[in-house]
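User: Let's play a game. I give you a shape written as tokens, and you guess the letters that built it. Ready? Here's round one.
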């Protein structure tokens, strides 16, 4: 008499919960070639992460975004604490970051009193950064050095475009040299690259410059999608306007 062995039950993989998502999350190891984007900071996954346990749900979080504090006392906004929101405020689909003036649709540090929003990536920008084409470290300023000075505008030393006085910049006071906070950030020097390699070996977060570049790339892609959607919407509205116009009758 033969007896069949009971089927082995699949191993239960540990899962965790996060208030930003309805489903459980499990540990996920991203592959660089997949270019998977974090649903929190909207940067490419380059470190330890979590993934939704539902196969049909594309929700991912960096471990660093999973662990973000619920409140931040940020130097850029000293009068009020900033609260971490897991989606844009006031039921909007996007918000505008006060640091870089770019849209965001994921997590934001928000002040409801001032309608002040920061990308979580911008909120964590390093206070100094190195550029290969400049001999001194650049310091993060929460407005340009020209703010409040009449008849003076801030020109980005990298791209030579004008920067609004309320936007953040990286700046060298000694040389009066400054750049956009995201779009004109260059590679770190060799020492920083060596530190980055050590961090990656230890499984830590990627370097500040790498995170800034990833943020810049994601913002560009988002802006392109929003422009495409706007063009498509305008075309649809134009077609409806033509349809609603009174038809001209011709008599021969």
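Assistant: Ready! My guess for every position:
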């Amino acid at each position: 008499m033969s007896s069949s062995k009971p089927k082995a039950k699949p191993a239960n993989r540990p899962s965790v919960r996060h208030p930003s998502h309805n489903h459980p999350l499990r540990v996920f190891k991203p592959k660089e070639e997949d270019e998977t984007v974090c649903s929190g900071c909207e940067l490419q996954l380059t470190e330890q992460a979590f993934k939704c346990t539902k196969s049909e749900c594309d929700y991912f979080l960096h471990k660093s975004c999973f662990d973000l504090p619920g409140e931040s006392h940020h130097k850029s906004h000293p009068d009020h604490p900033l609260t971490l929101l897991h989606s844009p405020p006031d039921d909007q689909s996007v918000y505008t970051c006060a640091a870089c003036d770019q849209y965001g649709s994921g997590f934001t540090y928000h002040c409801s009193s001032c309608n002040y929003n920061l990308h979580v990536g911008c909120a964590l920008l390093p206070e100094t950064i190195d550029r290969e084409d400049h001999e001194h470290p650049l310091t993060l300023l929460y407005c340009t050095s020209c703010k409040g000075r009449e008849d003076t505008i801030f020109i980005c030393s990298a791209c030579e475009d004008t920067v609004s006085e309320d936007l953040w910049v990286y700046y060298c006071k000694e040389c009066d040299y400054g750049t956009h906070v995201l779009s004109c950030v260059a590679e770190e020097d060799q020492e920083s690259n060596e530190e980055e390699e050590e961090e990656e070996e230890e499984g830590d977060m990627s370097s500040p410059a790498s995170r800034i570049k990833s943020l810049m790339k994601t913002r560009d892609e988002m802006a392109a999608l929003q422009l495409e959607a706007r063009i498509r919407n305008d075309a649809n509205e134009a077609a409806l306007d033509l349809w609603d116009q009174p038809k001209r009758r011709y008599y021969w």
